[in-house]
Amino acid sequence: MQENNSYRHKPIVLVAILALLGVVLVTAGLFLLLSPGEEAFHGDRVKPNIVLIVMDAFRADKVGAQRNGVPLTPFLNSLTEEGACFSRAVTNCTWTRPAMASLYTSLYVDAHQVVYDTHVPEEVSAYAALSPELDTIATVLKDAGYATIGIQTNGNLFPEFGFDRGFDVYRTSLDDIGSLVTDWAIEEINQASAPFFLYVHYMDPHLPYDPPQEYRDMMGYTPGSLAPEEREIVENFRDYLMAHCKIKTGQISQMPFAPLSDAGREAVKCLYDACIRYTDDEVRRLVESVRAKASDTVFVILADHGEHFWDHDLLGHGITLYDCELRIPLFLFGGSVTPGKMDWPVEIVDILPTIAKLIGLSPLDSWQGKEMFSSEVRPVYAKTRSNSPAWNTDLESVIFEGRKLILNRRDGDVQLYDWPGDAGEIHNLAEKEPESVERLRGMLEQQYRLNLRARQGVHQETTIDEETREQLRRLGYMD
Q1: How many CB atoms lie within 10 A of CB 398?
Q2: pTM higher than 0.70 for the full model?
Q3: For residue 129, how far is the Cα from the chain centroid?
Q4: Is residue 335 classed as helix, strand or coil in its secondary structure?
Q5: Among 152, 269, 297, 419, whose Cα sits 20 to 30 Å from the Cα of 286?
């Protein structure tokens, strides 16, 4: 029987075709990997870029709010549809340096040992710094192959305090407004290699509440309606705020200013709202610029803490754990992030594990946070403690299963609230629910022991130069 030659040669032809196809695919792959430009930012060939945007002292309840008929956060509002919105996010400390140390390391305050250290002139001026022994978000991402860039305008996070470690570029400036921060960030990403990690810190919502004139007008700020002495206080609010805080912490017995009228208080809030809208516009500009260059980017936008504006008759931040300070806006979007409203409690220590999961990195054993997309019911913790006896601050809180406990370590006082139902934290349930107090207090004690075991470095202190000291004074961190 004659053999069919067409069947005999088909395997040879198929092998040749597959070999040729392999050469073509390898060549194309090398071209894509080696070619600069937008191709480098797409697909599964490289990890997505990461952009972390922190808006200092930005209250969570400003998202979606209005003033003078104008939305305060039109850009953040749009993210409630496009991104993952964590509506019950909290910080782990109501002061910048400890809060950002928790974000950097995924460690609670007692574990990383960076505390609130507003000083008074007669006390020794040594400041809590991040231990060089700790892994940080920048060192982790740098080890994963990221170019790491930081744009920093808060003196509390300057290189003297260890927050530049792991960054290839860490640009710092004192007191610069959001437009310059955005310009610097755009300049850096335009020359960054992929993948990159960009961290940008906007200071505009922070004291002294000094927005550009355009935004004062937008919010309807009318200083002419104020008495001259009130206008002076409103537009130079730092000294009034500091005096008010000293009254509340027992440092002074008499307020050196006349109380602000309702109109004066509203004027202060108006300036803050103008700062909120200005920050929202600058964040939008930065996001749009990054997307134009690198569409394969994951964005994380949040605040480090909130701010008091006479809630509980208090001002500023750092000396309480009430929700106006504790709750923060938090959005994730881009890359593989699934949009939606996430209505379970999450905390700042969860940021780093979440970023790691999104880019395929295994979590470090040292991390205390969890990835945020798990709706597992678990407690969230916060602490604010000053190393200055004059400020008399040592508070801890835990939120779990609809209750929030605040414990004052200095005098043993406890407050218990329905959370988040009692939004103003008006009704203290501690006497009515002693069993809840006992249970949550036990959780705080257990977490404290875990924090001590999680410590990896010794407590670190540093000194600062006079220029940084002056900026911190203007921000209300020292006399």
Answers
A1: 23
A2: yes
A3: 18
A4: coil
A5: 269
What is the second-level CATH architecture of the domain 47-474? 3-Layer(aba) Sandwich (3.40)
| Three-state SS at 347 | strand
End-to-end CA separation in angstroms for the chain: 105
> Hunting for tokens 């500009």 — which residue is that?
285
38 Cβ neighbours under 8 A, 6+ residues apart: 293, 294, 295
DSSP letter at 420 equals T
Report d(CA 373, CA 337) in Å as an integer: 9
The CA R_g of the chain, rounded to the nearest whole Å, is 25
| DSSP code string of 20-50 | HHHHHHHHHHHHHHH--SGGGGSTTSSPPEE
pLDDT band (50, 70, 90) for residue 479: low
In the structure encoding, which two tokens stand for residue 354, read together? Answer: 């979440």
Write out pLDDT tens, residues 275-333: 999 999 999 999 999 999 999 999 999 999 999 999 999 999 999 999 999 999 999 99
For residue 459, the one-letter residue type is H
Helix (H/G/I), strand (E/B), else coil: 293? helix
Helix, strand, or coil (residue 50): strand
